[in-house]
Amino acid sequence: MPLHDSHPLVVRRNDPPALIRAYRGDRPETAPIWFMRQAGRSLPEYRELRVGTDMLDACLNPELASEITLQPVRRHGVDAGIFFSDIVIPVRLAGVDVRIVAGRGPVLENPVRSAADVAALPPLDPEALAPIREAVAMTVAQLGATPLIGFAGAPYTLASYLVEGGPSKEQLRTRALMHSDPETWAALLSWCADITGAFLEAQLEAGASAGQLFDSWAGSLSLSDYTNHVAPHSARALEPAKALRVPLVHFGVGTGELLAAMHGVGVDVMGVDWRIPLDEASRRLGADVPLQGNIDPALLAAPWPVLEAHIRDVLERGRAAKAHVVNLGHGVPPETDPTVLTRVVEFVHSHG
User: Fold this and answer.
1) Which residues pair with 151 in a beta bridge?
2) Catalytic residue among 79, 86, 268, 296
3) Is 99 a catalytic residue?
4) Catalytic (active site) residue 113
């Protein structure tokens, strides 16, 4: 189904924002910039707004989710909003008992570790996505010419939370299930792909101008495991979004060895973490692939001359790619001084 006539990509098809131009491989005169996790704990206005409200409840309150998405755009002058949500929201909307534990992350009371557990997972009712659509529409109406990026977790990362019962550094149970019970694994990843794909599709149809798939834990995988057991499901998750012909970005942490395979699932742009220089990422992917990244989040706490030199290096290496959207190599740390982020944006806009 094509985008509706009032969708920002349709309205501005002859004059797309710098971010969309870059995502499509057309390098603007000024490099566009936004930050992963730009909305959230680094902002005092966010902390004030969130008092007394559970994280997942905030994500599912259209007014709150919209306001939180808009906060960093107003404060920093970034070139895009990123829809405020959480990777496990589609899991919650499907009816699975998941909650966010402060200092830990998403936690499930009953992990999914058997064929029976997977068979019991409920389908996602499309009507459950109504608050997501409403929040996106509210946000887009206030962003004006600034595009909104849709957000979704990749099937492997969703499956990791379900199998481990919470965050895990190595995903040992997850990778064990992948190899010990391939049929159950495939069924679980298919379920994850379908719900997260519907979640991203809802955002794009409601007005988001691009989509980003986050595979936060894919760095735990070998290239062989990713290619054989994960990539087909990520491609499945992206099918509804690809049908809408919007720019799509893929990002993972510690995934330098997987870049080409992750690009191969059907995205336009590859996000790169801080471990791989952008010119090396471009060499691995080919110069025609637009890149996003990859300022080291740790250096946001460094003295400005150190951070400035690093940003200059990122900008210079980004010239190896067809186009470059400046971002961090992961999310904004909670303790980051917001004035530093604003200064980074101003610097990139004047030097990028």
Assistant:
1) 212
2) 86
3) no
4) no
Angle at 149 between CA 143 and CA 223, to 5 degrees: 165
Interval 219-254: pLDDT, tens:
999 999 999 999 999 999 999 999 999 999 999 999
Is a pLDDT exceeding 80 seen at residue 1? no
Q: Is 343 a catalytic residue?
A: no
Q: How far apart are CA 142 and CA 67, in angstroms?
A: 10
Q: Which residues contact 126 (CB under 8 A, 6 or more apart)?
A: 198, 202
117: exposed, middle or buried (C-beta count within 10 Å: 0-12, 13-18, 19+)? middle
Please name the residue ranges forming H helices in the chain.
8-11, 18-23, 44-50, 55-59, 62-76, 89-93, 115-119, 130-143, 155-164, 172-180, 182-206, 223-225, 231-243, 259-263, 278-285, 304-318, 338-351
Residue 71 in 3-state DSSP? helix
Choose among 150, 250, 143, 249: nearest CA to 206.
150
Half-sphere exposure of 72 (CA within 13 A, CB side): 31
pLDDT at 105 over 90: no
Measured between alpha carbons, how far is residue 17 from residues 145, 190, 270, 291 in Å? Answer: 7, 34, 19, 17
* Catalytic-labelled residue, pool 21, 37, 75, 113: 37
Q: Report residue 103's pLDDT band, with 50, 70 and 90 as the boundaries.
A: confident
Query: Is 41 a residue of the active site?
Result: yes
Average pLDDT, the chain: 97
* pTM of the model as a whole: 0.97
**Which residue of the set 23, 156, 161, 226 is catalytic?**
161
Classified as helix, coil or strand, 309 is helix
Question: Dihedral angle at the C-alpha atoms of 221, 225, 231, 232, nearest 10 degrees?
Answer: -150
Per-residue pLDDT tens digits for 254-279: 999 999 999 999 999 999 999 999 99
pLDDT at 104 over 90: no
- Per-residue confidence (pLDDT) for residue 220, from 0 to 100: 96
| Vertex 273 angle, CA 291 and 107, to 5° | 125
Tens-place pLDDT, residues 195-216: 999 999 999 999 999 999 999 9
